[in-house]
Amino acid sequence: MLFVPLITAPEDRAGRVLWFAFRGGELLVSRAGQEATVPACADLREIGIAPVRHQYLGRLNGQHCFACELPADAASPPGLEFKTLRSLLFELDPTMSGLAGRAFQLIEWDRTHQFCGACGARTQALREERARQCTQCGMLFYPRISPVAMVLVTRGRQLLLARKPGYVAGRYTVVTGFVEAGETLEQAVARETREEVGVDVRDIRYFACQPWPFPNSLVIAFNAEYAGGEVRADGVEIEDARWFDAEHLPDLPEPVHVSRQLIDATLARLKGTHT
């Protein structure tokens, strides 16, 4: 699937478009067998739904796509249902999943920036860029992105994995934390690892990144080598942390997460080194 992101909807559009319609954190979907998909129609009013506000997303394989916010009491039309976005990330194909996450973040940004945070006046959407501008003081508001640094620390053939409170029972993942103001990504990796599990790292290397819409994160994943310190969970962000041999790992995150992709790629590299 080819998605082309755009900002301004064409005035002369015709035909059915894809609607990423949210009621709070729930997305309106239909099902063809076991596969979930979003409604396609020229206007949601055709199926009995009136959006509160909407955002144009762009074109998916030439088909226009919109995100929209629905009233809190919106009922699902016949043949459609509301499902939490988090659950749908495991059902939608990667392109549709990414679009749903993008749509959710834009709708939430639009909903929470109807008024200026500086003077309280109304804001209005700009046509030429994805932004809202205060009608009184002129302040601009862009969709917010919160960078998250993620790191898999290795020591030989051992992987440092951790558990957060409330995480799935028995499941471990990599060290993760939000980047603070004034930090580089590498500084955030080193600080979070030291704070959360008591370990120093070296040789920090970029792996990949992933948008994550809970609520508006961009997760940037890294590999790093152990440089010293005794592993200890901080007891707040992390309830347990330990070294695991590459051949004896605990339950891991689902493959949709970049954390799992980071672990799998590291295991493949260690296997190649071992052989």
Describe this protein's structure.
With 275 residues, this protein is of the alpha+beta class. The protein is built from four helices and 17 strands. The strands form three sheets. Strands 1, 2, 3, 4, 5, 6, 7 and 8 form an eight-stranded mixed beta sheet that branches. Strands 12, 13, 14, 15, 16 and 17 form a six-stranded mixed beta sheet that branches. The chain has a three-stranded antiparallel beta sheet with strand order 9-10-11, with no helix packed on it. A hairpin with a 2-residue loop joins strand 2 (17-23) and strand 3. The protein is globular. The protein starts with a strand and ends with a helix.
Annotation keywords:
alpha+beta; globular; 6-stranded mixed β-sheet; 4 helices; 8-stranded mixed β-sheet; 275 residues
Taking the alpha carbons of the first and last residues, their distance comes to 37 Å
| Dominant shape | globular
What value does the Rg take, in angstroms? 22 Å
Could you report the average pLDDT, rounded to the nearest whole number?
93
Topology summary:
Layout: E1 3-5, E2 17-23, E3 26-32, E4 35-37, E5 40-41, E6 53-60, E7 63-69, E8 80-84, H1 85-88, H2 94-112, E9 123-125, E10 132-134, E11 140-141, E12 146-155, E13 158-163, E14 175-178, H3 185-197, E15 200-212, E16 217-228, E17 240-245, H4 258-274
Parallel strand pairs: 2-7, 12-16
Antiparallel strand pairs: 1-6, 2-3, 2-5, 3-4, 3-8, 6-7, 9-10, 10-11, 12-13, 12-14, 13-17, 15-16
